[in-house]
Design a protein that fits this description.
This protein is α/β, with parallel strands linked by helices. The chain contains eight helices and 27 strands. It starts with 11 loop residues before the first helix and ends in a 5-residue tail after the last strand. The structure holds adenosine monophosphate and magnesium ion.
Length: about 450
């Protein structure tokens, strides 16, 4: 697929039109914070699903179908044998048994991919392989196991009823029948079905092209040497790229840029041409070097908010450049970046590719320990979900609150979603949990 093939062409008169502002952001709470759900819904309201593309069926795995699909042929396409054996007239072998076999002359043989050269006359049998078309005149198949496997004539030891061991034309799918609907997610089985009815392409929403950039002058690419005590490896661009890929995106990981405003602007501008979404980490809090927050308003319309969640309070969003490419600016602490990805970027990626539900579905889980939380903010604590002795799902915390605790995050397999009103959860209480499977 062409990398640059999906850009809208600006009408010349629109190119100089006034910059359209972002829609009105949601009202913050009296404490100055925006609710997590409001922020997610706001981002979703600012983006549109990507236009559908016709793709090869192998490339359509896990994508959302944008057309109803009707079978152009029947499945099976013709009456055929379900067994290796002999095609017969069932009436000829009606009384057959081991004691009283019925002996029939074998008048030919049909393999899969062949057709019988002539009609089967009453009182004869034709050798037939699984999947081979039934000869005209034959109405049943006696499997090998019910015969002596004779070559020129065959002794039949079992009776069969009319149609036995025959797969009927159209018994699975009728020609003209609708087999898939617009909005269906294409898994392996649907792709098999599409191939079986002879289609090699389908109309689907494409994988969003997500560009991942991390910012921070302290960042060093893994594999290189750390040169001073203040340097750290860039984990976020890898983690976010992997998370975006797991969510279904086609990812371009750019890696780290320094906190130099010109460099940040240059990289983002360069990447706009191939991005359906840009994800950045770092530089959106209140620090002196929060470069992303400082420069992005020069490249597009932006919204920086304090969201009522922990971790992940500082959040940035923008529609950048002439094409108003969506950009989600995540905080730099690795756990904040990951939790914010789950809360906001993953739903946006799923909306772009038309996969519902956009958000993770919360499930109830019993805690094994008491947990304290902050009132006024949703706490997204890292947890480990397991099955208890009684088979019920239970969750324990994976480490502490710190948003730098990447080791604990990696051990976790779930996020606990502790509501804004929750201050304390007792052991044995139920809490909401997002399971972090890598499946979509
Ligand atoms: P920031 O949001 O840019 O102020 O970053 C907050 C914290 O997260 C700082 O301690 C950074 O060193 C750390 N951090 C920022 N970006 C990354 C990254 N790409 N990988 C690992 N840690 C990061
Ligand atoms: Mg930084």
């Amino acid at each position: 697929m062409p990398m640059f093939g999906r850009k809208r062409v600006l009408e010349p008169e629109l190119a100089h039109a006034e910059v359209q502002p972002l829609p009105q952001p949601p009202q913050a709470r009296p404490n100055g914070l925006r609710s997590m759900a409001d922020h997610r819904d706001y981002l979703l309201s600012c983006i549109e699903e990507l236009p559908p593309f016709r793709q090869q069926i192998m490339d359509a795995l896990d994508l959302s179908l944008c057309e109803d699909i009707f079978a152009g042929i029947s499945l099976p396409g013709f009456d055929n044998s379900a067994m290796d054996g002999y095609a017969v007239h069932w009436e000829d072998v009606a009384g057959a048994s081991t004691e009283h076999p019925v002996r029939l002359p074998v008048v030919g043989e049909v393999a899969a991919g062949q057709s019988a050269t002539h009609r089967l006359s009453p009182g004869t049998a034709m050798k037939i392989m699984t999947g081979a078309p039934m000869p005209d005149g034959a109405n049943s198949v006696v499997p090998y196991e019910g015969t002596d496997r004779g070559a020129s004539d065959v002794a039949v030891y079992v009776s069969v009823v009319s149609g036995q061991h025959v797969r009927r034309r159209g018994e699975d799918v009728e020609q003209g029948q609708q087999v898939l609907s617009s909005g269906d997610l294409l898994g392996a089985r649907s792709i098999g079905l599409v191939a079986a009815i002879g289609l090699d392409t389908v109309l689907v929403r494409p994988r969003p092209r997500v560009v991942v950039v991390s910012t921070g002058s302290e960042l060093v690419e893994p594999g290189l040497q750390l040169n001073s005590a203040d340097q750290i490896y860039d984990s976020n661009s890898y983690m976010l790229a992997a998370a975006a890929k797991s969510a279904g995106a086609q990812v371009f990981r750019i890696g780290a840029v320094t906190d130099d405003p010109e460099e940040v602007k240059q990289i983002i501008s360069d990447q706009l041409v191939r991005a359906d979404l840009i994800l950045t980490s770092g530089g959106v809090s209140q620090g002196d070097y929060d470069v992303v927050k400082a420069v992005m308003p020069e490249l597009g319309v932006t919204d920086f908010a304090q969201v009522a969640m922990q971790p992940g309070k500082p959040q940035g969003f923008g529609l950048i450049g002439d094409d108003r490419t969506p950009m989600i600016m995540l905080p730099g602490n690795p756990v904040s970046a990951f939790v914010s990805f789950e809360a906001f970027a993953r739903p946006v990626i799923r909306k772009l590719m038309g996969t519902t539900p956009y958000s993770r579905t919360a499930m109830r889980c019993t805690t094994t320990q008491e947990i304290r939380s902050f009132p006024g903010r949703i706490q997204m604590a890292r947890g480990i979900v397991s099955f208890g002795d009684t088979g019920t799902r239970q969750v324990e915390l994976a480490g502490g609150h710190g948003s730098h605790l990447l080791g604990d995050l990696a051990r976790a397999n779930a996020l606990l979603v502790l509501g804004e009103d929750t201050e304390f959860v007792a052991a044995g209480d139920e809490v909401d949990v997002w399971l972090l499977g890598d499946e979509q």
